[in-house]
Amino acid sequence: MTATPRKDPLVAAYFSVEFQGKVVGAFRECTGLGSESQVVEYKATDAQGRPVMIREPGTMKYNDIVLKRGITNDMDMWTWRRDVEEGKIDDARKSGTITLHNQKGEPVARWEFTRAWPSKLNGPTYDAKSNEVAVEELTITHEGYKRVQ
C-alpha cells in the first residue's frame, strides 16, 4: 500500500481583500465563506407502500462574509457603505477576491465573490482601560462565490 503524502493545514496569518482589482487592505479575521441549501421535505411512499420522508436540496443561500480589521484613517469601507445608505446600490455592487496569506505573506488560498455590497458596517467599541487595537467590522452580502485556489 502506497502512503499518500501528508498535507499540512494552511496557517492563516491574514486575509487581503480586493474589489474590482483594487486591494482594499488586510484583515485580521474573515468569517462566512460558505453556503447552505434549504432542505425540502415531503412525504411519499416506497415501492411497498410504506411511508417515507424524502429530503431534497432546495434554494441555495450564500452566507454573508464578515471582515474585521484594525481601524485606520482609510475611509474606503465607510464610503462604500454610504453608497448603499444613499440608495446607490448599482454603484455599490462590486466583485472581488479574498486571499488567505501565510506567515511569509504568500497567498495560499483564494475565493472570488460576485456582486457584493456592504450590508452592515460597525465602528469600533472603545474602552479607555484596554490596550487593544480598535476594530471595525464589515458585513458583505453577495450573490455567489467560489474557491479558486
UniProtKB/TrEMBL annotation:
TM annotation in the entry: none
GO molecular function: structural molecule activity
Pfam family, one: Phage_T4_gp19
InterPro entries (alphabetical): CHP02241, Phage_T4_Gp19
Protein name: Phage tail protein
Organism: Deinococcus maricopensis (strain DSM 21211 / LMG 22137 / NRRL B-23946 / LB-34)
